[in-house]
Every structure is written in structure tokens, then in C-alpha cells.
Amino acid sequence: MAYDVTALRAQFPALKAGIAHFDGPGGTQTPTPVIEAIASALTSPLSIRGTVAPGEINAERIVHDFRHAMADLLNADPAGIVFGRSATQLTYDLARTLAAQWTAGDEVIVSRLDHDANIRPWIQAAERVGAIIRWAEFDPSTGELPPEAIGALLTPRTRLVAVTGASNLIGTRPDLPAIASLVHEAGALLHVDAVHLAAHARVDVRHLGADFTVCSPYKFFGPHHGVLAADPALLATLRPDKLAPSSDAVPERFELGTLPYETLAGTTAAVNFIADLAPTPQDPRRARLQAAYAAIETHENALRETAEAALYALDGVTTHSRAANRTPTLLLTFRDHPAQAAYHHLATLAVHAPAGSFYALEASHHLGLADTGGLRVGLSPYNNTEDVERLVTGVTEFLKS
């Protein structure tokens, strides 16, 4: 399909400020349809979910539409879509709930490649029950986390493996289906942090083989919150802490308090916005999402290759994003300059590429970058060749300063 980035950019009011945004891994800008959906929810009658008053019916419809939209995005069951304040909160809640079934000597595997939100909750939950943490190491020279790095750690006592769908620091996309096969052969569960992956590629939880998958709509044009997807039958086996009068149905038993309906409406609009990038409006939404993500990947990878070629040619620049299969996310360090200085210099040119370790603390240390990390260049679907040219020009000027 033809990818019209100019038409796409016109739907993002924030881009009129003239900033070249390379901060997508921290959250994308918001398109007009999402803004309008949030406003519409807030300006229509709205109340606690029900089936009598208009406000109740509106709330019920918004929740229904949200679950089905995210189910289409992730190829999941709508009854297994759980709202959360953030992916971090959802992972903490799930870790506490699962750990209630663990005993001393059980084992949990985490990876050095991950954002801390898919590491610390599992470590802390394991420590409380005396379970053992095992670390899967990625290769710092290639950025790769091969399935065998996890397979070698699996034992009959392994209860859960937590691994990223894509590194938010260097973009590495592990082979999740292969990892899932090994994990399930060992009788363990697989928890996938797809927060970074879902911004760049279609996440099919059935194909990936994940038992639990979390993502964050604000990484793909939506509002700030998290989503957990799992098989409803699996969720039904879990007993999270909840209020006595609150629903014990799945997925409601995992959702605390009244849901933010305007946020859910914005998320549905974000999913529809992505689906509308497909050229076949007559197709079902899941099919259109698949076509749209294929076009996004082609567009972003072309820009990434252009940026990489130009940045590789600059003396004194090291690029740490090297995996064969990765998102359009580059981590740069500089021989004679701190990454923070590059961040500040680029900001003066209206180019936003932040620096740091971005909560991927273990990965940053494993790369030898300590807490400092590097300059992260994260491409998004609305970036264009002019953005990349401005970035390369800015980095070139910075190296001469």
C-alpha cells in the first residue's frame, strides 16, 4: 500500500510546532481523531456502567468498544482485555497475584534486555516467597537475545519467564514464538512486555505464544494507560485482591475502581486511526490493522536505514542497536561528548531526541553504559525524510562543537 506520511502528519496538531520528534519510544504525539473521541466521551452523558440511563449506556458501550478494539489490535479475546493505569501497574498486580501460587525454590527467568517494568516486579514478587531469579543475558556486541539463552535456564521448577517483545533501548526483537515453545515445553508461563513492540509492529498474541502480554496505547497514538491481554480461561484461575462488592467476572476482577471512560474512548479511536491507514476500508478491522502495520514497518525501516547510513559515516559515533531484527530505535554514544550534551544541542534545533537509559537499567549496564545510557533516536510513523535530515545535520554540528 502507498504510505502518505504528509497526509498522516496533517492529523497531528502537535507537529505544527515544527519539532522533529524522535521521542516516540517515550510516547507518540496524539492525532485529532483521538482528541475528538476523548472530548466526545466527556461532553456526552456519562455515568457508572449500566443499561438504563443514557450515561450508563454510553459508559457500557465505550468499555465494550475498547475491549474489542484492543482485541483486534492484539488478535486476542475481548474477554481477556484488562485495563490498567500503566503497563508497570498491570505487571506489578499480575506478579503479586501469580506469586501467591509460588513456593520457595520455584524459579523465575528475567532478561537483561528488558525495561525495568518487566524485571523488578518479578524480582520483588519472587523474593517475597523465596523463589529464585535467573537472568537471561543478551549479547552486548550484537544486541541479540537468542532463544537458547532462555532455554538453557529452564528447569522443572521454572514458573514464569518475563521477556520483552522489543527493547525500548536498542530495539532488539527476540524470537518470541521460539522462546514461547521452549517455555511451554518446560511447563512455565510466558509474560511479554510488548510496550515498545506494539508501536512498530502488529502484535499477535496467539502467534507469539504469550500467556500474558502488556502494552501501552500512548506509544501508538492513544491516551496514557496500560493494557493486559490474556486467555480469559487463564485469568479465571487467578484471584487478585479486590473489593468485596466489585465484580468477580473476568476481566473486571482485575480492574480496580471506576474505569476512565474518556481514556478508553481515546484508545478505541487510536486503534481505528491505525486501521484507517489501510487501503481497504471494506475489510474487517483486524485485517486492516495487519495491512497498516506492514506499511508502517516498511516506512519506518526505510527511514531507519537512511539515518543509520548517515550516522555510521560520522567519526566518533557508536551505534548500539545492532540486532538483525529490531525496531527503528537507535542508541548512540559519542567518543568525545556526553550523550546528554547531544540531547541539549539537538533541542536548540527543534529536534527532540532524548538521552538516558530510559528505565532499561540492566540493558544499559550490560552495554557498559552504566546509568547514563545514550542518545535514543526513536522513529515513529509520522517521521519523514526531512526529520532525519535535520537529525543528521544536528548531530554533525554537535560533533564539531
Question: Would you write up a description of this structure?
Answer:
The strands form 3 sheets. The chain has a 7-stranded mixed beta sheet. Strands 9-10-13-12 form a 4-stranded antiparallel beta sheet. A two-stranded parallel sheet has the order 1-11. The chain has helices spanning 5-9, 32-43, 54-74, 87-99, 120-129, 147-151, 176-185, 205-208, 232-235, 261-275, 285-312, 339-348, 361-366, 385-400, and strands spanning 20-21, 81-84, 107-111, 132-136, 158-164, 189-193, 212-215, 226-230, 317-319, 329-334, 351-352, 355-356, 374-378. Helix content is 40%, strand content 14%. It has 401 residues and is of the alpha/beta class. Helix 3 (54-74) packs across helix 10 (261-275) and helix 4 packs parallel to helix 5 (120-129). The two termini are 42 Å apart. The model has no long low-confidence stretch (mean pLDDT 97).
| Annotation, overall tally of beta strands | 13
Biggest sheet details: 7 strands, mixed
**Would you tell me the overall average pLDDT?**
97
Strand order of the largest sheet: 2-8-7-6-5-3-4
What overall form do the CA principal axes indicate? globular
* Helix percent band: 25-40%
Order of helices and strands, N to C? HEHHEHEHEHEHEHEEHHHEEHEEHEH
Structure classification: alpha/beta
Low-confidence parts lasting 5 or more residues at pLDDT below 50? none
Strand content is 5-15%
